[in-house]
Amino acid sequence: MVKRGILGGTFDPPHMGHLMLAEEACRCLGLDEVIFIPAGEPWVKAAQQVSPAAERLEMVKLAVAGRPCFKVSDIEVRRPGASYTWETLVQLRDLYPDDELYFILGWDNLAALPLWHHAGRIITAAKLAAAPRAGFPRPDLDALDARIPGIKTATVILDGPHVEISASDIRARLKKGLATDDLVPPQVAAYIEAKNLYPTV
Ligand SMILES: Nc1ncnc2c1ncn2[C@@H]1O[C@H](COP(=O)(O)OP(=O)(O)OP(=O)(O)O)[C@@H](O)[C@H]1O
Ligand SMILES: O=C(O)c1ccc[n+]([C@@H]2O[C@H](COP(=O)([O-])O)[C@@H](O)[C@H]2O)c1
Q1: Which CDD domains match (predicted)?
Q2: Which of 6, 15, 18 to mutate to test the pocket of ligand 1 (most atoms within 8 A of CB)?
Q3: What phi and psi, each to the nearest 5 degrees, are found at residue 16?
Q4: C-alpha distances in angstroms, 15 versus 2, 58, 79, 114?
Q5: Where does the pLDDT of residue 201 fall: very low under 50, low under 70, confident under 90, or very high at 90 and above?
Q6: Which of 70, 103, 158, 185 has the most CB atoms within 10 Å of its CB?
Q7: Euclidean distance between CA atoms 107 and 29, whole angstroms
Q8: Are 2 and 101 in contact (CB under 8 A)?
Q9: Distances from the Cα of 3 to the Cαs of 8, 37, 40, 138, 160, in angstroms?
Q10: Ligand 2 mean position, distance from CA 41 (Å)
Q11: Is residue 172 within 8 Å of 201, Cβ to Cβ?
Q12: In ligand 2, which atom is closest to the CA atom of 37?
């Protein structure tokens, strides 16, 4: 049976924290591959300015280049309207009926899952693998299970390193003209510079 990880994100921009997260999930769960899926329209971030989906998709492709276990899907970029994870996972479940699917996310997002669309459908289609996120506590699975029945058994809590990297911090640094060495893969840094995606203000 093939074990696939699915890492959804806004990826504005993709960073080393995402690559370390995917590597940690591969190592802990014995995944055969991780599919990175940039959100076409991240509805939770509707109030903030987000880079065009085509640019984020391109950056994700650059970020994973040379890592054969990491793939990229444009399934959410091509699907019109708000990007809902349950729809993506139902599509992937149909595509890979016999595979073990893990939706990978940080502890910050696991805690927010009761606010997501059809969280029950998410855990029917896939298991969850939740990794530490610097600044966020280990999620209380019993409390979450009271709100989303079944989530406790559907979730694997990963106990990897707390990596203090976030896309919002990177955008803020770039807007101030500060260096982002070691925070984003060099090929992504070159793309950001060439396209002037986060201009200095
Ligand atoms: N440093 C990190 N450690 C663990 N998980 C992370 C880390 N960075 C991102 N993630 C997780 O990766 C997924 C995609 O994250 P996203 O693309 O929104 O990046 P982000 O750094 O959280 O962005 P922003 O700071 O703009 O909110 C989310 O589930 C998030 O929790
Ligand atoms: O489906 C939802 O309702 C939903 C709500 C918030 C976030 N998500 C997904 O969670 C992933 C990480 O989101 P974000 O906002 O942290 O980049 C990404 O794949 C989003 O589409 C999904």
Answers
A1: NMNAT
A2: 18
A3: -65, -30
A4: 26, 13, 24, 26
A5: confident
A6: 103
A7: 17
A8: no
A9: 16, 16, 25, 25, 19
A10: 9
A11: no
A12: 19
Q: Which protein residue has the closest C-alpha to ligand 1 atom 7? A: 17
Contacts of 100 (CB under 8 A, 6+ apart): 1, 2, 3, 4, 127
When pLDDT is cut at 50, 70 and 90, the band that residue 160 belongs to is confident
Enter the pTM of the model: 0.98
Amino acid at 53: A
Number of C-beta neighbours around residue 135 at 10 A? 10
Q: Give 165-197 as a DSSP string.
A: --HHHHHHHHHTT---TTTS-HHHHHHHHHHT-
What value does the CA radius of gyration of the chain take, rounded to a whole number of Å?
Answer: 16
Closest listed residue to residue 74, CA positions, set 133, 30, 8, 171 = 8
Identify the structural domains of the chain with CATH numbers, from first to last: 3-164 (3.40.50.620)
Whether the complex's predicted ipTM is more than 0.95 is answered with yes
Closest ligand 1 atom number to CA of residue 39: 17
Give the Cα separation of 23 and 29 in Å (integer).
Answer: 10
